């Protein structure tokens, strides 16, 4: 059976964006793992028994980044599944999109992560070394641009 995980792509809008395009002021939250290759990823984790996928995404976000569901706005119309092998087994990760209500909210990392960054799209894609993650971030950005 495939391993299943869920998470949130979290973004914030900086009010001080000087340009006319609102999307230029968007930054994405990435966490750096404290294990393995120390890769960068949005908050995500495995589905617990009895939990639905979205509950998992919010629980993992709270555990890994210290963010409560009440501090986020879930963005309707975006949901993405990534499929890739981990240690020879198939893995499915489902992501939703959420905006920080207050862009200055403090991030509180768990022991699973050693650092976090708020990054503009170009930098987020550099930090996220996996092609499917980079493609998803670009897709999210296009989605947000189309909603402007």
TrEMBL record:
SUPFAM superfamilies: Nudix. Its EC number is 3.6.1.17. Residues 1-141 form the Nudix hydrolase domain. Gene3D superfamilies: Nucleoside Triphosphate Pyrophosphohydrolase. It holds the Pfam family NUDIX. It comes from the Eukaryota. It catalyses: a 5'-end FAD-phospho-ribonucleoside in mRNA + H2O = a 5'-end phospho-adenosine-phospho-ribonucleoside in mRNA + FMN + 2 H(+); P(1),P(4)-bis(5'-guanosyl) tetraphosphate + H2O = GMP + GTP + 2 H(+); a 5'-end CoA-ribonucleoside in mRNA + H2O = a 5'-end phospho-adenosine-phospho-ribonucleoside in mRNA + (R)-4'-phosphopantetheine + 2 H(+). It is an enzyme of class 3 (hydrolase). GO terms for molecular function: bis(5'-nucleosyl)-tetraphosphatase (asymmetrical) activity; nucleotide binding. GO terms for biological process: AMP biosynthetic process; ATP biosynthetic process. Its cofactor is a divalent metal cation. CDD domains: NUDIX_Ap4A_Nudt2. Keywords: Hydrolase, Nucleotide-binding. Belongs to the Nudix hydrolase family. Catalyzes the asymmetric hydrolysis of diadenosine 5',5'''-P1,P4-tetraphosphate (Ap4A) to yield AMP and ATP. Exhibits decapping activity towards FAD-capped RNAs and dpCoA-capped RNAs in vitro. This is Bis(5'-nucleosyl)-tetraphosphatase [asymmetrical].
């Amino acid at each position: 059976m495939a391993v299943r995980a869920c998470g949130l792509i979290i973004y914030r809008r900086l009010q001080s964006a000087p340009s006319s395009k609102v999307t230029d002021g968007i930054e994405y939250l990435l966490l750096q793992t404290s294990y393995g290759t120390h890769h960068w990823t949005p908050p995500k984790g495995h589905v617990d028994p009895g939990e639905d996928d979205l509950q998992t995404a919010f629980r993992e976000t709270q555990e890994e980044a210290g963010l409560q569901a009440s501090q986020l706005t879930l963005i309707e119309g975006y949901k993405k599944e990534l499929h890739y092998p981990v240690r020879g087994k198939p893995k499915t990760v489902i992501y939703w999109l959420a905006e920080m209500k207050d862009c200055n909210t403090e991030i509180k990392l768990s022991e699973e992560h050693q650092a976090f960054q708020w990054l503009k799209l170009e930098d987020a894609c550099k930090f996220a070394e996996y092609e499917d993650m980079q493609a998803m971030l670009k897709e999210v950005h296009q989605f947000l641009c189309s909603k402007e």
